[in-house]
Structure prediction request, 664 residues.
Amino acid sequence: MTQNSFFDVAGIGNAIVDVIAPVDDGFLLKHNIAKGVMTLIDEFRARQLYEAFEERQEIGGGSVANSMAGLASLGGKGLFVGKVKDDRLGASFAASMRDTGVRFTTRFAEGGPSTACSLIAVTPDGHRSMNTYLGASREIAPRDVDENEIASAQVFYIEGYLWDAPEAKAAIVKCIAAAKSAKRKVALALSDPFCVSRWRGEFKAMLKNSLDIVFANEAEIKSLFEVETFDEALQALRDWPGIAALTRSEKGCVVARGKEVHVVDAAPAARVVDTTGAGDQYAAGFLYALTRGKSLGDCGRLGGIAAAEVISHYGARPEVSLRTLAADVGLL
Amino acid sequence: MTQNSFFDVAGIGNAIVDVIAPVDDGFLLKHNIAKGVMTLIDEFRARQLYEAFEERQEIGGGSVANSMAGLASLGGKGLFVGKVKDDRLGASFAASMRDTGVRFTTRFAEGGPSTACSLIAVTPDGHRSMNTYLGASREIAPRDVDENEIASAQVFYIEGYLWDAPEAKAAIVKCIAAAKSAKRKVALALSDPFCVSRWRGEFKAMLKNSLDIVFANEAEIKSLFEVETFDEALQALRDWPGIAALTRSEKGCVVARGKEVHVVDAAPAARVVDTTGAGDQYAAGFLYALTRGKSLGDCGRLGGIAAAEVISHYGARPEVSLRTLAADVGLL
Prediction:
């Protein structure tokens, strides 16, 4: 990776406050919540669900924002770009980023929709069903990004969810141009199989033209290539020169760069409480290791260790120092 | 693959009658049986265990012999070379090969040790602990192999267990030379992690000099390269130009040819009763598909289907037509 970078990773994503509540399957049925996926909702439904939740916990969230928090927990230097409103949840989001040590200076919106929130219903099997009101996070626009800052990071990291926010694409195009001209890497997380089916054509074009790294779970990569088996998706990537980091839950991950393929087993998890953030923390571990010049196999291993930590408790951000966990297995 | 071959696969292996009995873990402890592996025993201990077994079932066995039976069940044409004595178990072995349609014409030994048997203790978790008396099977020698027959098969297939029989090696050297000069493929199954540790140096030399295809489960390939993780073993094979078919039980298989890597999920098994023969039938399905010009991914898939059938019942050979199963999923 290029030297003399100020940040390890600059990420752009939806700035969301997670509102997490343990529920049973009956709650999902009663409130017509699709299990295990992310559904976009409006402000009215967000208020309804918020009130229906008992024992709710509020915490800074958003996929790339979570990854940046994980990167910081590993000792990496991260920048986050995302939009909140100047309201209670917006202040809460900014405080949560500041607490992790991630740089977050995007200007708050003064009017318009409220700060985004994701109402996450966690069932006893550890699956999470996310109901996301994008609110202010959709308002991210080219004027919110500083090309010099983006170009000062080794990796520019994007979440697929941003495609649901129209102006965000223009901001991303501007950032990619800045990253590319500084010879930085560009990484995309596919985010969700439905997100992939909404934006398949654009994601495939990015894969071909702009991306150096793609993160996807099994459902997402199968959706991208419209194939039925994991191996078909892997073969579809065989001639792609970038790095594919493909997560498979308890089956671990497969990391491929062209014809270099690593099959890495899952790190042992103390318990599975809530899988929210597993993919986000995997990306954090992976990108941290990559920016430290580790082998692709070790990038996958550190990703797995970060994911195993986050699924052992509620919430999408690490509760213990990932740096300590990484040091324990000789991966720093 | 080369055309105009008379056999699809010519296999050489220990000609063994399996004596299978369901036991509990207490039985293993009482009789000092190492769980889940193959242990070599002498004739005295073979008789002892034989008598301790209740509900025993006798059936033709031996790793490569099982694979040839599976190949025949798929509609493939197989030749088996192996040594039995002219005794009751020897006749039983020959009959079991004849019943499958595999050609088996190796001359019976008239004197010397009895026909080999493997006393297989199957615990309720489906694991099998094999206690093998090699007897007459060790007597296989160069004079028992017909070079023209070997050279008439697309693939010459060897089991690693044969390294425990001294004269067998000379027979194998003769067969490899015949296969190579006819431009046929040479395949080796590593057989067992302890077998690998006994013969690691010779197996590695074969990998370098003679083999086109290697079959191994995870423990075997890790033992071969003396590494701790599956991925390290996979990376150790990265520059090898042959085909590695690596089985991982419920994790499916990884098939690699140089830098072409397939990650194939396990076929769904109706139930797991007895894992005896899973590797043998995997090789049968894999080699059948290979001799029919299928892709490496499809070779792995057909191997997985054959393995899923054999673990759903006691015994190491298919109980239903593998050809029908393969046709059902469009893999013929």
Summary: The domain at 7-328 of chain A is CATH 3.40.1190.20 (UDP-N-acetylmuramoyl-L-alanine:D-glutamate ligase). The mean pLDDT of chain A is 94. The interface with chain B takes residues 229-232, 234-235, 238, 251, 254, 256, 258-265, 297, 300 of chain A (CB under 8 Å). The two ends of chain A are 17 Å apart (CA to CA).
